[in-house]
Write a structure and sequence with these properties.
Layout lengths: L5 E8 L4 H20 L4 E8 L11 E2 H9 L2 H16 L12 E2 L3 H13 L1 H19 L6 H10 L4 H7 L17 E4 L3 E4 L4 H11 L8
Parallel strand pairs: 1-2
Antiparallel strand pairs: 1-5, 3-4, 5-6
């Protein structure tokens, strides 16, 4: 196997999607395992923003009221949140959905991530992505707020000039492709999967999508 072997994985996501947080956690485990098994394969990860709710005001909306309107009743909201929290807990993530007060517009956060993608490299990008997910789903922070985003970016080492530049970006985040739902994974243009899949399933997809690597049993 030559060092020129390359596996490109595209991931469509939005920051207000708990399944994307769960899916990223599972993907990180699968990618780590894959690189251990196939160290000569160059794994390239491309993160593609999808703004699920572009019509949410810049200042956001009250979280509880938004989901009650969306799901029909407080009881339905509780059932959905319990389902999400249990799914997260089963893979080692503890969410605090009760701490969320605002449903944010994610355009500012995605603009910041895009600026980081062009200046900071994958490690910084994914550190910020992890911090944004944790801020929203585990700490109830408003990731649509400019000051909050600046503080989160500083925590993971994003230079101030990158943060300042991102704050001048305007407009909704355009999706890079039409996908049925997020998270959505694409492997070398050969395979695609939607949903927060188990790490074992993602690992299998990586193996199948890369010609020349031995498929897992």
């Amino acid at each position: 196997m030559s060092t020129g072997n390359k596996l490109t994985i595209g991931i469509h996501f939005d920051l207000i999607c708990p399944w994307c947080f769960i899916g990223k956690h599972q993907f990180a485990m699968a990618r780590g395992k894959y690189t251990q098994m196939f160290p000569t394969v160059n794994v390239e990860t491309l993160w593609h923003p999808v703004q699920l709710l572009p019509d949410v005001p810049t200042s956001g909306l009250p979280f509880a009221e938004f989901y009650e309107r969306r799901l029909g009743s407080p009881e339905a909201v509780k059932r959905r949140q319990k389902q999400v929290a249990q799914a997260a807990s089963s893979v080692g993530l503890e969410l605090d959905l009760s701490a969320i007060k605002r449903m944010p517009n994610t355009a500012r956060a995605h603009h910041l991530l895009r600026r980081v993608a062009t200046s900071g490299g994958l490690a910084v990008y994914e550190a910020l992505l992890d911090r944004l997910f944790a801020a929203y789903f585990q700490r109830g922070e408003d990731i649509g707020d400019a000051a909050t985003l600046q503080a989160l970016a500083t925590e993971v080492g994003v230079p101030s000039h990158v943060v300042d530049a991102a704050q001048t970006d305007v407009g909704n985040v355009a999706t890079t492709a039409a996908v049925e739902g997020v998270p959505h994974f694409e492997f070398n243009g050969r395979l695609s999967l939607s949903g927060a899949r188990d790490a074992a399933i993602l690992l299998m997809a990586m193996s199948k999508a890369m010609p020349g690597t031995k498929e897992l049993p």
